[in-house]
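Session log. Operator J.P. requested a structure for one protein chain; no other inputs attached. Running the standard single-chain path with token output.
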Amino acid sequence: MTSLFDFTQSSDTDKWQIVNDGVMGGRSSSQASIVSVDAGGESKGETNAMRFTGNLSLENNGGFASVRSRPNGSLGLDPGETIMLRVKGDGRRYTFNLYTPDRRTAFSYQLEFDTKAGQWTEVKLPVDKFVAHSYGRPMPNMKLTPSQVHSVGILLGDKKPGPFEILVDSIVVE
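Structure written below.
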């Protein structure tokens, strides 16, 4: 198992950036921070997590809020691997994005996952199941080359306006 992100230091948010629908005139807002939270489960202690929170707005043709890691070379993914997230969500459906250095605008490989309100869950996302998307539309004939992935992200775009919050304890690869 290889850790991609573990959010142990408050400076870890410097490795992430917010990209919301404001890039196309929307009104959604969000922020990311490192917070100390109850680890839940059997560990019964504290852990640090990235808190991604904000307000999703459908105004002005908006409808998405996202946080993504800043590119820093290949993340070293291989075919057949699984990305695992430990998250505490709000019951909404989020999208996990993989980004490659491809120069297309609004392009990523995506896989959706559900959260359980107020509960820590482990989400397993097989690298081979991610589907290319451009401007939110699937492009099923484009295949991901996992070794080219240089950035990841979490996006909310479930068309349900209002506040949201997801805590991410870790992102690992198995």
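Operator note: The CA atoms of residues 7 and 50 lie 6 Å apart.
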